[in-house]
Design a protein that fits this description.
The chain is an alpha+beta fold. Helices cover 47% and strands 13% of the residues. Bound molecules: 3-methoxybenzoic acid.
Length: 397
């Protein structure tokens, strides 16, 4: 018997209402206590900054090898062959992480800067001829959908499969609800294209994908493992960045004085992108699984239990942030956990930041105002917060 010294909540983070506006639910969970039992999902939840940090840093107790979704891979068949970096613990994770980390070092990424800058310039050229735009299709999707597959070294044919695959991957982190079913509807064409794109032959010789395969030639991973690591790039590298850019546009549309500030000082672009990540975190929450019995903030957890870790809630915890619901590009948003924390912290962070910084810089230089033309329309996903449409009216500088 478990001592009943913890709050139990009927809150449903996967209801349409909570996914549309998750912040009231986060506040409720934070107020209930450091560790809350979610009755509907038979799992624990942490929503305060301090406890989110504690769980993420203790990978030995809060493992990823049983999956970072609600499904426990020890008792349930995973929907796909598990990722060898995300859904893995040391020592496997240590070996695979090293390779992707090396492939995306700042030195490697330096070469992408002029390429991304040229792409941002031509994107803004086209935007300013239109004025009435959809911030999602015309900005947040258009930019990463060009620069990211180019950077990986994918062929130009079939790239439309990438975003639907990301939608599946991030829905699969949640419960098996209608969203999973809907996004899986295209699995029959999307998954074969993705898997084929992960093989050495499908990649250009000069991209990040080829760099991953260089680790095979160096004897660090098998050919099969290299393919799995390219799959990780394709799983995690596009939808996340698209969501982050879209969410940043929504933040600027809601806080026009912050756009004015960025226009005054475009060098704040990277800080602004980070602050948008804090305020509207693309990855809302992932799970961990206890590898052993443990005590967390005074609550006793058994081995093999799922813990839902709310990154997005930690990023708005008033115990940690002043005016957490305010978008303030001058604040010190370092310490946000939108990229995660600890050994599983996003390995593509520098690439995401480069994309966000370059795009926001170019927009800030050339667009006087980005005014909402209508309310943004949410795109529902079990773990990614993003929009389907962001109607905007742009004014040229
Ligand atoms: C992967 C991966 C990595 C990070 C996030 C993600 C759930 C997937 O390795 O496939 O999305």
């Amino acid at each position: 018997m478990r001592a009943v010294d913890f709050p139990i909540s009927d809150a449903d983070p996967y209801s349409t209402e909570s996914m549309t506006d998750p912040y009231p639910l986060h506040a409720v969970l934070r107020e209930l206590g450091p560790v809350v039992r979610l009755r509907q999902y038979d799992c624990w939840a942490v929503a305060r900054y301090e406890d989110v940090n504690a769980v993420l840093l203790d990978w030995e107790t809060f493992g990823s090898g049983a999956g970072v979704g609600l499904a426990n891979f020890r008792n349930e068949k995973p929907w796909r062959v598990p990722s060898i970096i995300l859904e893995a613990d040391p020592p496997l994770h240590t070996r695979t992480h090293k390779i992707l980390a090396r492939v995306m070092t700042p030195q490697v990424l330096r070469d992408f800067r002029p390429v991304f800058e040229a792409e941002a310039r031509s994107l803004v050229d086209a935007l300013l001829e239109r004025r009435d735009v959809d911030g999602m299709a015309d900005i947040a999707r258009a930019f990463p959908e060009k620069v990211f597959p180019d950077a990986v070294g994918l062929p130009s044919e079939g790239r439309e499969n990438l975003a639907p695959y990301g939608d599946m991957v991030f829905n699969a982190v949640g419960p098996r609800n209608a969203l999973v079913e809907q996004s899986m509807a295209s699995a029959g064409t999307v998954i074969p294209w993705i898997m084929q794109s992960c093989s050495r032959g499908g990649l250009t010789a000069d991209g990040l994908g080829a760099e991953v395969y260089a680790a095979v030639d160096a004897g660090e991973v098998t050919e099969e493992e290299a393919g799995m690591l390219v799959r990780s790039l394709l799983s995690a590298g596009l939808d996340t960045t698209i969501a982050a850019i879209g969410n940043a546009l929504v933040a600027f549309a809601r806080f026009p004085e912050q756009w004015a500030l960025l226009r005054e000082t475009p060098a704040l672009a990277r800080a602004a992108f980070d602050e948008a990540m804090r305020l509207e975190s693309p990855v809302q929450a992932f799970f961990r699984t206890t590898t052993r019995a443990a005590e967390l903030a005074g609550v006793s957890l058994e081995a093999g239990e799922k813990v839902l870790v709310f990154f997005a809630s930690a990023n708005r915890d008033p115990r940690r942030w002043d005016d957490p619901d305010t978008f303030d590009i001058r604040r010190k948003s370092g310490g946000h956990v939108a990229f995660g924390l600890g050994i599983h912290r996003c390995v593509g962070e520098a690439l995401a930041e480069l994309e966000g910084e370059i795009l926001l810089t170019e927009l800030a230089r050339r667009v006087r105002s980005i005014a909402p033309a209508a309310e943004p329309v949410i795109h529902l996903n079990n773990s990614l917060r993003s929009f389907a449409r962001i109607p905007l009216r742009l004014t040229a500088a």
